[in-house]
Amino acid sequence: MRRRRFLFTGLLAIAASAGLHYAVFEYAHLEFSSLAGSAPVDETPREVVVLQDEDRTPLDRQTFADALLPADPASLVPESAPIEPPAADLEPADLPAPKAVDIGNQLEGIDKAMQAPDAAALPAASIDARRELVKIDETLHQEDVVTVPREFIPDVKREIDVPDIAPPQLPELSSLPAAAAPEPPPLAAPRAAPPPIDSIAALPPPSFDSLLPDARIGDPLESPELLAAQIRAAAEPPPAQEHKAVEQLLDIKVTQFSSPEDAEYLYFKVAVERGRSAVSGQGGLGGRAGTSAAAAPSLPVLPKGVVLMQDCSMSITQPKLDEFKKGAVLWLESIRPGDYFNVISFSDGVETAFPDLVPMNPGNKQTARWFVDDMGLRGKTDVYASLQKLQAMSVRSPVPVVAILLTDGRPTVGLQDSTDIIEKFTREAGGKLSVFCVGGGSRANEYLLDLLSYRNRGDSILVGAASQLPKAMGTMADQLERPVLADLRYAFTGEVQPEVYPTTLTHLYLDRPLEIFGRIPRGASGKLAFQVVGTSKSRETHDMVFQLDPRTGGEGDAYLRQQWAWHKMYHLIGTYLKTRDASQLAQIRLMASKFNLRVPYISGTRGGLAPVAQPIP
Q: What does CATH list as the number for 245-293+484-608?
């Protein structure tokens, strides 16, 4: 009986405890709901702008404690309420007056009456306390009651460490008082009407660079006439450039040849050489010992840039490389003071003695000699990479560049197709480089060496015996030592137009004759006029004009005819490389057959031409 009483008492206590806890829970929930309200909590990330004092003075303990007490709602300033202006007795030192914004210069171009508006029309300056941005990533409790007024703004991407500077705001133009525009000053005399549109439209369109070099945009009083004058000036051909004659410094030698096998044409050669009456002076054209310096004018020697490009690939072989290095040392000795130079060694990579062309002086010469002595065989042959390095140097060179490529001309890595190498480099160089090639060995790539030099103001030689390389290189160095005219171009005129080659000339050198080969119909009569134009050291344009009669030239031999044929062959191949016209291949075969030329290029491979050691069939 007693056990039942204890069990009943226990159950009653448990029930009472549960009821008490439930009542407490319900009471607490009602109190929290009355404070927090029934609105759901917004979980969207946002930023809070907190207004602080301008001087950002640190708070002491008491002030911080007072700020935590519930604030009187009546003392809070609504967000939309305007800020009260400062009291009249506030000292200027406590609150500096806002600076006036000078809008006179900022409104340049607006009517003068609008640049001095009434002060009453301008909006009054207001005080804007400094704002701090506080980013809220997660809301943990409701924030209906806050101590400091807050303004919620969207969470947008912001730039970090941007200067906290607010530029002055100009008043809207619509808020400025309107005023009558001043009348323009009277013109001294009425201007002529602009030309008819038809007469302007009929002129060829000028380039943008020549239009209105002095006109001012927005000048309605002068633009029509000035525009018409500028268009007429752009349409007129430029005046002919005056050349300084130098034929008195030069001599020409004409030789001719005719063969019973080719009765239709007369072949001739024009060789431009230094004149016997010219003065050498400081490297002037021609000259003889004992000639007076006042007897005739002279052309100074052009400063030049020399780039020796040595192939150091394994295909060269060590004995041949040793001979090339001897020739390179001789070439360094021929470079004149005042010239620039550099040395390139290449295989499957490219190395240079200097980053760019450097002046010739004893120190740089010694550095280059060490670089040449250190050359050794390595890797494969990347000819095009070395040409790219040469092109980069020439762009930055202050003087005309003459490059000497020393190689067997057989690329084995990188761009390997000779046709692509010739065409790409020629297009990139644009006729600004002069490339001479020295081929070593009987297996040298004649196709690459011949066409690369022919199309880039140069020439090529092939040296079969390695032991003859230094002598051949020394002879070429002497011939190219003293250039006097660069960027040559020429023309023939007369009753009959001759067929002449090469179409692109080398520079004019004192010690290397300038040779042009041509032919005319054998029955043609009359003289020819021959003009060559080039640029001298002083950047002046010089020309030489000669009259000649090929029929009265000295007697030549069959070699003259063969040389004309070879130059035309190079021209045809160069044209084919640019146009890929199959008809050019037929002309190449016809030329090879008619003139009995052993052309080391054969059809049947990519592009129709390739280097081989047999003639075209």
A: 2.60.40.1230
